[in-house]
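User: Hello, can you help with two protein structures?

Assistant: Certainly.
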Amino acid sequence: MRISEKNTLEKIIIVGDRVLIKPKTARDQTKSGLYLPPGVQAKEKVQEGYIMKVGPGYPIPADYGFDEEPWGQEEEEVRYIPLQAKEGDLAIYLQRDAIEINYLGEKYFIVPQSAVLMLVREEDL
């Protein structure tokens, strides 16, 4: 990941329980030495890539008390249950649920957390 790439992604806001993934560069060759055409790797059911941005999580409803009048309360901020994924994690995800976007000439995927099958994190849990 380049430093300039990180700065351009700061303008992006990911919504809800979604993550922004930059796909890992695909290998052109199989373990046995066969060369793959460009479209073969993209059609795989399971892909991997690095998480670049993470949404706030799953929204939870506001807890209104029965003894207080709802119109007299100030507007509450929305609360969220945070996601397991963090920026920099390597994610293994289902391709069918991913939405491909191009941002400043780079290819990214927006994936719901439910489509992420596994995370690989370099730091200790």
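That covers the first. Now for the second protein you mentioned:
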Amino acid sequence: MKRKCMQQFHINWNKVMSYIQNNFSIEGKIDIIGIIYIIGIQELGKGKNRFFNQEDKINILHIAICRILEPFGYYLFLGKDKEGWPHYMLKNKIPFNPEEQLFVIKKAIIRYMNDENILE
């Protein structure tokens, strides 16, 4: 059973990677941070033709992490501020093991893409 779940995970992750590569003008291989950044821009809703400073970019990554991990019980959405930036509160600690973190984040990205009807 576990092997079949892992096979499905890899199939779904490959779908995510294919979607990103086919729908964004990205030179070279995209990494997990790039995918998280794209999700953050999507969630912020202000990415088109806008310049973001370094602090904004870090906040965009944070928005994405919070958004994708919210369904897993790690964050709680509090609302948006007057400038439209979403805010979250940490509910549960995220695993500290880097391998486990990466797996959870990839699962969360797959779920986000499915929930947003981005993947077929």
